[in-house]
Amino acid sequence: MLEVDVRRKLSGFTLDVKLTFDVGVTAILGPSGAGKSTLLRLIAGLDRPDGGSIRLGNQIWFDSASGTERDVRHRQVGMMFQHPRLLSHMDVLANVELGLRDEQSYEEVVRLTGVEPLMLRPVASLSGGEKQRVMLARALAGKPKVLLLDEPFTGLDQVSRRELLNRLARVLPEVRVPVLFVTHAFDEAARLAQSFVHLSAGEVISSGTAEEVLGGMAPNVDLERPGQRAADLPADAHEAATSSLISGEVAALESSGLARVRVGGQTVDAPAGNFSVGDRVYLRLWARDVVLSPLPGRQLSARNSLAGRINALEKLHNGQVLVRIDIEGEKIAALVMAQTAKDLRLEAGKPIFVIFKSTALDLSMVVEEVAAPKAPSAPDAGSKEAGADHPVE
Amino acid sequence: MTIDLLETLLISLRVALVGMAGAGLVAVPVAFILARFDFPGKWVLSAVTLLPLVMPPVVTGYVLLVLFGPHGPLGAFLHSIGIDLAFRWTGAALAAALVALPMIIRPLRVALEAVDPDLHEALRVAGHGRVSRFMKLDLPLIWPGLAAGLVLGFAKALGEFGATITFVANIPGETRTLSLAVYTALQSIGSEGIVWTLCGISILISLIAAGLSEWLVARFDRRRREHGHA
User: Fold this and answer.
1) pTM of the complete model
2) Which residues on neighbouring strands pair with residue A333, listed in sequence order?
3) Which residues of chain B make contact with A99, given a CB cutoff of 8 A?
4) Are residues A164 and A224 in the same domain?
5) Chain B: residue whose CA lies nearest to A127
6) How many helices (H) and strands (E) would you count in chain B?
7) CATH number, domain containing residue A161
8) I need a labelling partner for A108 at 20 to 30 A (CA). Which of A135, A137, A190, B178 fits?
9) Does the distance separating the beta carbons of A89 and B223 come in below 8 Å?
């Protein structure tokens, strides 16, 4: 277990974080300049905290109280950076070997990361996605105790990004150490991580499951004001910012650009995005966009009408009521006026229909790509994209 | 007037090669310090390494004579441990090393500064110490810069005149290098043939050195362009 309790002054704010990371992938989300990368650099030992401590199990990596600091070389972390950092005067094999500590074998790593066909190629001939895969192989070759991924998809085109995402989705479950994955893309986070941390202006806004963290975040983290803190938001913004993540499985894709997503025994029409049939997905629905009705919604422009049961009603101070509804195990929140709740006689235990437009699903994320190619060589075949794969500087 | 051509050529090559090697040994750590560290007074060190290039060679020679002459503070000490530099070919090599120094430090420093610090960071994370990083990362990238510097330093050492004649005089068979031999030949009437021969040899060696240096620099630039950011 990695325990991080650090402070570090950055331009305009102080990164002040107290977090614990277990084995498994934790996504660290937040706008640019929130301190995400700095947090990874502090953990790796590339930068020094102004105060606090970093511990891995009973090993102290940093402790300002006792003046202890373990050198970056001896922390045994694996790291992928925003841009691949390979030595171009060496071939791929030599670059992977740079990660070895002592007399370790890297055959398993080579197999896992799929870099075998690249081993004797010069680095300059690799695409951006391939380079990042070599970086992953190097990071894993050293049998890391912590794996740090600092926006490894930066500058990759869609095809390479998807390939690397699939690769990581397969590799990371086999890496039995804490993995910290910095990103500002919800879909990447949802796909790879089990735990989530929302960081803004150096502060942890929320941490926990996808529902707890992604549910409350703005549709696009990049739009968040860099200096914004949760405490600064107006009181009713919290209620307005309530959303639900509906999980389901893609049953069919329609030519109209809609995906039929199976949620329990019912279906939701959602914008197809980059879904494939069989994918497990998250759809996000804001509480303020939900219409409640005792009758199924028919002949409405809103395409979706799900039958559920009211779990609870929470009275908010501004004359609104937050209605919590259970739909075959999926939890959905709806925001209505108190008067509406009264008129409709909403109460816990009552059946209800949840109606919403497909366009209200502002965020769709693939959690598990069932349709991912199974043959180990298949993802490499497409990785020689015709020069479209250059990092954007 | 007779000048032993082969002897002069051999003295010249010996002086220039030893001078270049000595300068190289000093230049690598100095360039490393200038490229990688920030410290107060860095510009002073940087300026001092340039001095032999900008100072009149005669002045350089005179300073050497005062310091390393038989009665100089360093000369007396070195004499006590059996090393004499004044009026010896070794002194000529010292003068050559001094003027070669800035020629080697400059390109080496540029080459070291061109190595991406991000790559150093990545290797530190992978567990590599300073020596390992120098061998695996710096050296393969800077060697064309180092080699180009050494070649230029060699050429500069070969052509050294002012400092040499002031410090170690013009002693046949000991300190008379090609440049000094040309000077000697010019003093005597009817030696145009020897002058032309000596000049020809000098021009040839200089051409080879300059060509080699240009080739190495071009190679270095190409490498940097291709692999600057892997």
Assistant:
1) 0.74
2) A324
3) 126
4) yes
5) B230
6) 11, 0
7) 3.40.50.300
8) A190
9) yes
